[in-house]
Sequence to fold (144 residues):
Amino acid sequence: MRSYFQSAAMALCLVLPIAVSANAGETPSPDGAKVYFINLKDGDTVKSPVFIQFGLSGMGVAPAGIEQENTGHHHLFINDTLVEGEYDDVIPADEQHKHFGGGQTETTIDLPPGEHQLQLVLGDWSHIPHNPPVYSEVITVTVE
Fold:
């Protein structure tokens, strides 16, 4: 008779490869997919709260947790940028990394006066950038 621990270990062995295979930037993005800011451009001067519209072409928007081909959801990086070593990692959720896992395509955020760098990054169903990653140019806005 198997013990509880043997049964749990066997179940983990069956599930673990499935979980790992769906990870780390393995969700493909189609050629030419782009994410961009609709209403802001590099060098803009704005007032807080800042209204931001997210643009996406070549893909669709789907909420986090919904695994559907050629879709993702937006993430806004504030005073941080996506760097090559982070392509396979889950995008953090904190003050510098705003998640829009409900499929939102716009937001209003409070930013203190001064210069701020903004970047949009599309994440897959599990908050990991696609392969290849889909991200906007970094723009700098000045908040009055």
Notes: The longest strand covers residues 114-123.
